[in-house]
Structure formats: structure tokens, C-alpha cells
Amino acid sequence: MASHAPAHLPTESRSPTLRSLLSFFSDGPGNHKSESVTVAKGDESVQGQFPRPSAGHLFGNVTAVAKVIWAFTKDDLFTATLPNAIFSITAAFADVHLRGTSGPAFSRVFARLPLTYFFSFYALLIFHLGNQRPRDGSVAEGRLNNNKPSGKTITTPEQIRRAYLILLPITLALNHFLGVWHEGLMIHLMTFIYNDLGGGNEPFVRDIILGISFGYINSASLKIALTTTSSSPHGHTWTWLNLVSVLIATTIGCQEFKNHKNHRHPQGHQEGSGNDKTMKRKKALAIFLGEAAVPRAHLALMMPLWTLVCAWFWRLEISVAASFLLYSLFVASRVLTQRSAGAEERTWKFWARWTIVIYLFPIVAVLSA
Description:
The chain is mostly helical. The chain has helices at 16-22, 55-73, 77-99, 104-111, 113-132, 143-147, 157-178, 181-195, 203-225, 235-251, 276-289, 296-313, 318-337, 341-359, 361-368, and strands at 34-41, 44-51. It starts with 15 loop residues before the first helix and ends with a helix.
């Protein structure tokens, strides 16, 4: 079927804009097969090359996007995204109670749980994409290299860069739609400081940046949850938000456990040898210090301490606070004693559950009242 292309169409036209769109999530910049067509108009003949947008290729692009998103969010769905959403809902419940709002407001707050979860999901996704965005031809912290399944690589650095390029303006538009434009910009700023300015490479600065980032994510989620009830949170709720940000900054080191490899000590030391006692002392010291940026003893101390502080903040009954304290002591004991790779990964998950326990304090206080 003849096409009516203009006679001045240049030879070997590549249609770069369309080719770029079709190959947006491929490994290379538009190197797909194309077919040559001849267009007749009067006595002139125009020959050019146009991309061939097959249905399979378009489906492959969508699949590539889904793989990029899944690769960066699968570990956070229940260990970071869900706790953030729970924080916003429980804090919003407490805020409604502090303001003396009538009962129906609680149902409206709970109905916004999917929106708060969705915001936390894409906010963490953008943070991870910025973290893994290739700089100087390499992946920043090797998240995909550490967590990729055996056999086939899920994504490439070029796909990460292009996914970040297209998802960044989409998240900005979503922030505007959800009414959290300011918080969203601050999250992007923290991502820039963490990745491009090297803040993530500084041991203590890293934890501060992550604490502030989670604070803005929680603040935006809380704002989304309270959209139908009030313009701004109660003062006690704001204090709780800041308290949780400091809590995250001082315990976020537990996230390093999911990437730790089992520590192997040198072989050849026999029982009763001269160096045996020295090796035992080194092992005991390693249990308390560890290889993380934050010593294990510090992390183990912070969890029961924060449990007591947060229980006091919400005026929980002693028996209720004691049960929560027992769980924090259990997690702290794992931080100090469990050293194998699989055990440390489970400890990280226990830490995530501990944050959920802390985030439930407001709703426990409301129910007790």
C-alpha cells in the first residue's frame, strides 16, 4: 500500500524520535531492525528506512519497565513501604483522636491507606533508582549485583538510567496531585545528596540523610492520610513524626545486615594453641563491633531504649510497654549474636517488624484511652 511521504524526505531517514521512544528501555540507543520502503510520487522515487513497531517489541519495553520496578521494590514491599504506610495511618488515627474529631473521620483516614502505600512505594523506588543510576559506567552500590537471581541479569545500567529519566517527572506530577509537592522535592534533594554528592559513602552522614528522607516520606504519607480531616497535624503528632525520624537515623544500620556476608576467621588455629585465647577475644569483640558503619552494640542498645522512650511518649501502660520491650530485647539479642548471612537477613526483617511495632503505639494509646 503506497504511502504519501513528501518528496524532499532525506535518503536513509531514520526517524530518530520514534526510534528512541520505541527503544526507550532497551540496552542500546535505538539499534533495532528497520525495513526499507520505496515511496513513489510522480516520476520521483524516495527511499528511506522506518522503524518497525511490532507488538512483541512494545510488549518487551513494558516488560523491561516492570522488571526494573520489581528489581528495586521487591525487598521493600513489607520491610519499608508497609511500615511507612502503617505509620501514617496510626499517626493519623491518633491525630484525629487528639483533635476530638467524631467517629466517621476514622473510616475516611483508613480509606486512604492505599494512597499512602502507593506514595511510599514510588518514593522509595525513585530513591533506589537514583542510588543505582550508573555513574562513570558503573552501578552505584551494586544492589542488583548483590540481589539479582542466579543466571540471568534482570536489568542493565542503561535501562536503570532510562527508567529513572521517565519515572522522575511522573513522580513529580503524582506529588502535585497528592498535595505533597514540598515533601516530594525534599525527598529528591535527599536522593541527590545521598547519591551524587556522596553522602551515602559517609558513615554517620549516611544515617542522618536516611533518617531525614524517611521523615519526609512519613510526613507526606501522614499529610495524604489527613487530607480529608484537617489542614495540618496536631503538635503532638508533629513531635511523634520527628521522634520517629531520629529513631530511624539511629537504627537504620540494621539494613546493612541484608548485604553482609558471613564472616570467616582464619583456619589453622587448634584448640589449646597459643593464639586460641587471642582469637576468642577477637571473635567476642567482633560480635559487639561488627563490620557495619554503626557498631552492633549501638544498634542493640538503641532498640530497647527507643521502645521505652516511645512507650513513655504515648503514656502506655506498664504491662503493655513491657511486652513491646521484650520483643525489642529479642531483636537486640539477634543483632549481637546472629552472624551468619541467612541469620543476619532475618535480623533485618525482625528490625523492620520492630519498626511496625513502634508505629502501632499511637493506635494502642488511642484504644487504651
